[in-house]
Design goal:
Elements: H1 73-76, H2 79-82, E1 134-139, E2 147-149, E3 160-162, E4 172-173, E5 179-181, E6 184-187, E7 194-195, E8 197-199, E9 211-215, E10 218-222, E11 230-234, E12 247-251, E13 259-260, E14 262-267
Antiparallel strand pairs: 1-14, 2-3, 4-5, 5-6, 6-8, 7-12, 9-10, 11-12, 11-13
Length: 269
């Protein structure tokens, strides 16, 4: 028996609606399948990002006259089964899906700010003026702790003292180191010991002027020669015309008739 030739074209259309949400941009491969046997055709590739529909077998609802040998639509769905032909099944490999992912990295720049702070400090300084005038306070002898007194007239000597600085004579030293009181300059004769006189400068050209220094409260002077540095308090005299005549004198040594003493310079302002 010769098997009838059956020519049948079946077109199956299936619409599959798929909603896919992805967080990255990607390209997906298409699924392709081929059927074997009399209905041998391949499904075409669809547009980008569209999944290909699976191949389906369509079952007819009625059997044509030329296929009356098939007892029903189930057998007619495969003409070969009506003549005892065994169908074969071909298994194809599963399609490969390729997924390409593009990641976007957002870089937030970090800004480093360097701040320079300048601190300016203002220090208020109070200027202290040096007091150039002072009192002479005796140290030692019978007038210890008392202040020298002068009448403030020409050609006077220091013969008296007071316990109160308010009643004492005020002294100063000029740039040349000369000792002054009330405009009168201290000088001596060329003897040891020699009484200290306060005269108008130039009155006695032959009388050497005292050179004095003051360092804080420390006070010292030099007479007619460099080693005439010792102060002493002598009694009144000059009746014989010899030194000392009385009062404060300066010499290289302390005379037996006199008392040794020194002076502190006490600021008067």
């Amino acid at each position: 028996m010769t098997a009838p030739v059956v020519t049948q074209t079946n077109t199956a259309t299936s619409t599959l609606s798929v909603t896919t949400t992805v967080s990255t941009v990607g390209v997906f491969g298409k699924r392709v399948a081929e059927a074997s046997g009399p209905l041998n055709h391949a499904l075409p590739l669809s547009a980008l990002n569209t999944l290909v529909v699976r191949q389906q077998t369509v079952k007819p609802s009625s059997v044509p006259t030329y296929a009356s040998a098939c007892s029903g639509t189930v057998r007619y769905s495969s003409a070969c089964s009506c003549i005892g032909v065994t169908r074969s099944t071909t298994t194809v490999a599963a399609p490969t899906s390729i997924r390409t992912s593009i990641s976007t990295i957002t870089v937030t720049p970090t800004t480093t700010v360097t701040a320079t702070s300048t601190l300016t400090s203002t220090i208020q300084a109070t200027a202290t003026a040096t007091c150039s005038s002072f009192y002479l306070q005796a140290q030692g002898s019978t007038v210890n702790g008392q202040y020298a007194v002068l009448p403030g007239t020409n050609d006077e000597t220091i013969t008296s003292f007071t316990p109160s600085a308010n009643n004492a004579a005020v002294f100063s030293i000029d740039a040349s180191g000369y000792l002054y009181n009330n405009g009168y300059r201290a000088n001596t004769d060329t003897a040891s010991p020699a009484t200290i006189f306060f005269d108008t400068p130039g009155t006695f050209p032959g009388s050497p002027a005292l050179r004095c220094t003051r360092n804080g409260r420390a006070f010292s002077c030099t007479g007619y020669q460099s080693d005439a540095t010792l102060f002493q308090l002598c009694p009144s005299g000059c009746s014989t015309g010899s030194e000392p005549c009385g009062g404060v004198a300066l010499g290289t040594s302390v005379d037996g008739r006199c008392q040794a003493l020194s002076f502190n310079a006490v600021p008067a302002c």
